[in-house]
Each structure stands twice: as structure tokens, then as C-alpha cells.
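Human: I would love a firmer grasp of how sequence relates to backbone shape in proteins. Take your time, and here it is.
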Amino acid sequence: MSKQYRDKYLIGDVSKICNISKKTLRYYDDIDVIKPEHISEYNSYRYYSMDNMHDIMILKYFKQMGYSLSEIRENFNSYNYDYILESLKEKANELREERRKIENKIKAAMDWKLLIDEAALVIQFKDEKVIVKEIEERSYPSLKQEFKYCYKESIINIPWVKLLELSGEEITGPVILKFNSYQDKISCKINTATIFQKGLNDVEEGIGKINFGGQFLSTYHIGSFEEIEKAYKRIEEFAKENNYTLKGESYERYVVDYWTTQEKSLFVTEVLMPIAREELS
């Protein structure tokens, strides 16, 4: 071997030593990320140096941290300590944001699973009893809008989804509708409802807020929404028999609905009606 090629490695050797494909090495050469030390004019063989292989190790570590090849090339071309430091700070912030988004996705998926589990138990035990329920009060992103008794339109709510996207809010958990008068709701006289869900990003601007929580009478309704007034009647009767005062508004918490299935017999809705605290013993 001539002195020119001493201590040089062919692409196949580098591929084995560095655990990287020859195709990838050629690509790195083409985009000027890692260029071989020498390319033979006679046969176009690529010859790599030990320094080249050290650069490959550095590149792999940058890739592990989520750097793109263009970002890696910029770092390779910079000999400025402050530039590298700033690059690492920016990457750390970028990765934190990615982690937040992934955590939101996991939270939403797990909450959806819990809703299906909840509905399955309600259906299994035909659980339609009325209970007193305490819910911790908190603020939820919300939107007041027209209600036309078209439940699919209200639950798979296009204006609501659009508002969430525009505001940068992400949500999890069930759709909940608030009706200002439960009597008007069951009499088909209500014409507005407020939709809300649990927010994940705590967005404060560009979206309405509603406080929800306190003490409620609660019961489940199984099946089609067209017969949900039966749940309201059960709560009314329970309140009368047990001397509870209903405040007047109602909430429908859609545990399993059109988001999960089109089979109405599998729908499960929790009806919640707040009770006046002074009447509780």
C-alpha cells in the first residue's frame, strides 16, 4: 500500500468498525456532513481516516440527542464554544417541548381507556342508581354555543376542536355539556349549552373558561341519548325523597359516545345535577 493510503480505511471497513451502513456513509459524503479523507481518482474508492471515524461517533451522539443532519453539519462547521453551548440549550428546550407533547398524548390515551373501563362496569352491573358525588372544583376550557339536540354534532364538535387548535390548548377526558336549566333540557326547550373538557396546557388566552366542581346528585344513563330524561327523573325523585335541593342546572358527562362507538346501546352518560350546600347534613 502506498504511503498515501497508509492508516486509511475503506468504506466497508468503516461500516463494520463504526456499525453504520455503507449507504449512510455515502449519503453523509453527498450532503457534506462527513467526507472521506481521500477519494481515489483511479477507482473512486473512498478512504477514511481515524479522525473521520471519531467524527462519526460524535455525529451518532448528536443524533441520539435529536439533532437533524443539517444541525449536526452546522455544529461540525463551528469552532465556537458559545455557539455549541447555545445549540445545546436550544435542543434541550426543544426536547422538553417534545416530551410535554408525548406526555399529553399518553395522558389522553390513558384517560380514554379509563372511560371505556368505566362504561364497561356500568353496563355490566346495570348501574343506574343515584348517588351523592363530590367533584374537586377546577377551571376548564369551554365554549358556549347553540344546542339543537343533535348530540353527535355537539359531542364531535367541530367549532370546539377548531377553537382548541387555534388557542394551542390540548384536552383529555370526556366531553361535558352544561345546561343552565335541567327542566328546559328535558322539555326540549333549551337552546344553548356550554361544552368543556379538561385542558392539558393551561392556556389562558383565546379560549373561555368555566369552573366545575362541588357536590352533585349523579346517575348513569345507558343507551341512546333520546331517552336520557329517564336519568333526570331518577335524580328528581331521589332529591325529593331525600330532601336535597337541586340548583337548577345540569351536566351531561359523556363517558362512552360517538368518539368511541356508533353503537348507541353501548353509550354511557353520567348525568350530574348540583345540590345546594346548605341543604346537606
Summary: The first strand starts at residue 9 and ends at 10. The longest helix spans residues 81-125.
